[in-house]
Design brief:
5 strands, Rossmann fold, 10 helices, alpha/beta
Length: 263
Amino acid sequence: MFVISKLFWNAVQPLSLVFLLGLLALALIWFRWLRSAVAALSLSLLILFLTLYTTLGSVLLQSLEARFPRPVVDPSDVSCMIVLGGAFETEVTTARGGVDLNQAADRFVEALRLAIRYPEASILVSGGDGSLSGVYEGDAAASIRFFEAFGVSRDRLIAETTSRNTDENAKNSRELLSERDLGQCLLITSAFHMPRSVGLFRKAGVDVAPWPVDYRTAGNLSFALDFTQPTLNAQQMSTAVREWVGLAAYRILGRIDDVFPAP
């Protein structure tokens, strides 16, 4: 199922759809099905335009980010926190060593702040190698180096090193938390990723308190044309579509109880 999900996403992400629809249009022209070819090409161009030159991706992300509001003040006490991987450049880290953070670095910056704020809290870092090749160092290993480099004691860190996606993050984390008799934990991940993450952890029977970080939108956007930053618009659209497709797929597969989990 893991391999199928990876291949499926490679096919349905917006720019891949544009390419595949373009190929379909060429094939239809070859067979002289011109009306169908025009329809496929038109749909391809529409997706490309919406992806590159509108704020649609950001609007879709914004609705995900708004689902679980960030608490205004820090909790009075924290016994444990779960930090989901996805914040490291795994290919670079595997090749060069050290720790190379990506756009989701806020997950670990905030986790480090909370680790200092609550010196008794355990920190479960969850993430193995999520690639199809399986040749990269998992995020959990890089996470341990990150926290230790900033003086966080190794005995506070719990490494979940085998998960390849968020569903496995939740199930594998449950086992580690149960072994250590840890109760409710803060769940730290990107705000757009929080609805799917909370749904999966709830389904796995893990009591989590959402702590969203890494916001990608200002929260006050509306749909509009935007010709100034097509590369960023494409990235926003890809991220948003991935989350919404993931929510729908997990609901269909019964891995979450609601298509759009709520607080």
